[in-house]
Write a structure and sequence with these properties.
By secondary structure, the chain is mostly helical. It is built from 9 helices and 2 strands, in the order ααααββααααα. It has a two-stranded antiparallel sheet.
Length: about 180
């Protein structure tokens, strides 16, 4: 019990620090690493762990759609600025009503993702995917199921056009993972 309570306290502390320093995903990652080093627990979060945290965060809104949409927009603001040179037709996600760019790189066996969008809510949606699948292995991405979508009631939050675009983002990230897996085996 004590270990579980310590782990929850550790997660709350990390969240608080990330809220204070939330200028970019890079800074959040650096803050988490520093705290993990202090506690002696350097550990990558699994895709399941990240999705569970997202679910916990959305549950705090108790179904208040207006607050959830504002929260999604705030999440989008956490995306680091994407260099204009990456905002090309090659990285534009097809099938999205809004413009969404996903720029992948492959570093140390992991898929890293930069993303941006021209609309705030869509930017928040792509932020969720980058948070879940960024810095994960191609196999982990390809073998994962996104259960958070149903658990947070996303179909009630976004319309069918945005939902189709979200599916397109998911497919694009999985294609990048498949491409990196194919070329690095």
């Amino acid at each position: 019990k004590h270990s579980h309570r310590l782990h929850r306290l550790h997660r709350k502390l990390i969240r608080k620090i990330c809220e204070i320093n939330a200028k970019s995903v890079k800074k959040n990652t650096e803050s988490i690493s520093v705290i993990c080093e202090i506690c002696g627990k350097i550990k990558m979060k699994t895709i399941t762990d990240i999705q569970n945290e997202i679910i916990e965060n959305f549950e705090l809104f108790d179904g208040d759609m207006e607050s959830i949409l504002f929260y999604l927009m705030d999440l989008g603001k956490k995306l680091p600025a994407m260099p204009e040179v990456h905002k090309t037709e090659d990285y534009l996600v097809k099938g999205c009503q809004s413009k969404v760019w996903l720029f992948p790189t492959f570093v140390d066996g992991k898929v890293c993702l930069e993303a941006d969008s021209n609309t705030e809510i869509t930017k928040g949606l792509v932020y969720l995917l980058v948070t879940i699948w960024g810095n994960q292995t191609p196999n982990d991405i390809l073998n994962s199921e996104l259960f958070f979508i149903e658990k947070i009631g996303m179909s009630h939050m976004i319309g069918s056009q945005r939902s189709n675009g979200f599916v397109s983002m998911i497919k694009q990230i999985k294609l990048y993972a498949l491409a990196y897996k194919s070329t690095n085996n």
